[in-house]
Structures are given as structure tokens and as C-alpha cells.
Amino acid sequence: ETGVTQSPTHLIKTRGQQVTLRCSSQSGHNTVSWYQQALGQGPQFIFQYYREEENGRGNFPPRFSGLQFPNYSSELNVNALELDDSALYLCASSSASGGAADTQYFGPGTRLTVL
Amino acid sequence: AQTVTQSQPEMSVQEAETVTLSCTYDTSESDYYLFWYKQPPSRQMILVIRQEAYKQQNATENRFSVNFQKAAKSFSLKISDSQLGDAAMYFCAYRSVYNAGNMLTFGGGTRLMVKP
Fold first, then answer.
1. Under a CB-based contact definition with an 8 Å cutoff, are residues B102 and A33 in contact?
2. Does residue B101 have a pLDDT over 80?
3. How many CB pairs under 8 A join A and B?
4. Which positions 57-96 of A are in contact with B (Cβ < 8 Å)?
5. pLDDT tens for residues B39-65?
6. Which residues lie below 8 Å from residue B111, measured CB to CB, with a gap of 6+?
7. Residue of chain B whose Cα is closest to the Cα of A55
8. Does the beta carbon of A55 lie under 8 angstroms from any beta carbon of chain B?
9. Cβ of A86: how many Cβ atoms within 10 Å?
10. B37 Cβ under 8 Å from any chain A Cβ
11. Which of A17, B8, B57, B104 is the most interior residue, by most CB within 10 Å?
């Protein structure tokens, strides 16, 4: 069984640029969630994708957007980067939506630094 | 909205001893799930243990067990026979069964140090 993978591992961007982060879900999982974890804090939910549609969104502006592909992999896009976007971005996958066995399994994250 | 609070920013335990990490949460819902995740320096969140709110029996996974007090909205994690590899950030998380999707709400984390 392949776990959740994310790319790239690290990324450095400048303010105003755009960035795309990628996530491959664990085999058998059809739901992907994205979280932002600022240094020294717990992760904050950005949004979730289920069957290629956004299925829940946290308190993040529209410049945070995403996609899910037919193979259930996902992208997180952030436009007009701000310094406060510097964080660890975590992707988590799970099977189905809402069930008792619907535990999220996390990838290793992408560390984004905005200068 | 639900909130999760971890009141201990840092905890320390001697190897082979037992330590308890605290977590409280606020919700008006009657059914939900609670989780403890471990985040070592490698950054990857690893599921430690899960508790369904409708189950009165406390969950256990080998050396890890929880004390789930639903009325008090408390969900503590006990680590027995602590090992050096247990050193990590530990996050408590809440998940509603009613909202679309399965969003996790995390606490601020507790850093656990294990002394040899």
C-alpha cells in the first residue's frame, strides 16, 4: 500500500508570485484534504476534495484554490503570495466521506517560504 | 464552531515512565470523533489513536490509551513505558460527523521530550 506523497519538499517564492503544491493520495482513498500549519501551531483546514469537487472549506481566501484529478491526486494553488503564507502545507487522504473508518492519513508536507 | 485546547505547550518524561497529555474541546454536538496525532521532526503526522464519542470504552493502542470524559469534554492521552522515539509534537483533533466532509480541528500541540 502506497502512502500519501507530496511534492515538492521545500519551496521558496517571493511575495506576489503563484505556487502549486501536489499531493498523491494513499491507494484506495478518494478524498483529499489540505491543511496549513504555521510554525509552532496546529494545522488549519484549508479545503477538502471528494470526487473532484470541493467538499468543505475553511476560513481561507479565494486565492487558495485546488483541484482533484480522476486518479484522486490533488493540487493546491495559491495566488498572490503573502509573507504570512509561509508555512508547512499538509495533504491528507481518506476513503469515502463521513464514515467511522474515515481516518485521514497525512503526507510529509511541503515547506513553503515566502520572501 | 468547535475548538480544541491543549494547555501544556511542553511536557517531559523519563524513559520507561508514564506521561499524560491533556486535551479539552468545546462542541454542542453529541456525536463526533477525537484523535491524537504525533508529528516527529520529520513533519509527517502519524495517527496515534482514535475515539468515537458514542463509545464509552476508552480506546487503547499498545502503550497508548485515552481517558475520554464526554461530559467534561476532556480527551487525554496516556503514554506508558515511554520510549525515546515517542519524542514529538502531539496534536489532539476533533472531527464532526455532521458537517460535509471530514475536516479536522486541531489543538495547538504539546511538545513531548523523553529523557534517557
1. yes
2. no
3. 70
4. 58, 88, 90, 92, 94
5. 998 888 999 999 999 888 999 999 999
6. B9, B10, B11, B88, B89, B90
7. B101
8. yes
9. 17
10. yes
11. B104
Residues 96-115 of A with CB under 8 A from B: 97-98, 100, 102-109, 111
Residue A98 has pLDDT above 60, yes or no: no
Query: CB neighbours of A9 closer than 8 A, spacing ≥ 6?
Result: A108, A110, A111
On the CB side of A97, CA atoms within 13 Å amount to 17
pLDDT digits (tens, 9 = 90+) for A35-59: 999 999 999 999 999 888 998 899 9
Q: Report the SS3 class of residue A26.
A: coil
Which amino acid type is present at position A58?
G
Q: Which three cell numbers stand for residue B94?
A: 476533533
Q: Give, in order, the Cα–Cα distances in Å from A64 to each of A40, A46, A69, A75, A81.
A: 22, 8, 17, 11, 10
Question: In angstroms, what separates the C-alpha of A7 from chain B's closest C-alpha?
Answer: 13
Q: Is B38 on the interface with A (CB under 8 A)?
A: no
Q: How many residues does chain A have?
A: 115
Compute the C-alpha angle A52/A13/B39, nearest 5°: 65
Direct distance between the N- and C-terminal alpha carbons of chain A, in angstroms, rounded to an integer: 38
Report the residue of chain A nearest B9, measured CA to CA.
A40
Q: Which residues contact A102 (CB under 8 A, 6 or more apart)?
A: A31, A94, A95, A96, B102
Are B106 and A90 in contact (CB < 8 Å)?
Answer: no
